[in-house]
Fold this protein.
Amino acid sequence: LMALPVDQPVPQGVREMATRALRHCRAAAASHWQLATMAEANLVLGELATAEALYRQALQIAHSPRAVQSMYSQAVRVAERTSGELGTEMIETLFRLDASSEAVNKANPN
């Protein structure tokens, strides 16, 4: 996905992998990584509102600044590739506005 030109649509194979990831996540134990993976899969599938809701949930239970930073760095790259400026702005706003989480404050001090 990331190696393809930006003007190319998300390949069907990548969409299928995202769908497969969602199936696996639904069977997995709840965690911030499970929620973040589901959010990322929804970004790939073009479901921004669902991705945003899942990232919000993940941020509420992630207590490690490293985990939050890792979620953010992956999310912003995938959002930029799959949804352009709209997706990037959503992720940047979400990770900034969810400042009620101590981990978010530590990971994103600006």
Notes: The radius of gyration is 13 Å. Residues 65-97 form the longest helix (33 residues). The chain has five helices and no strands. Helices lie at 12-27, 32-44, 48-61, 65-97, 102-107.
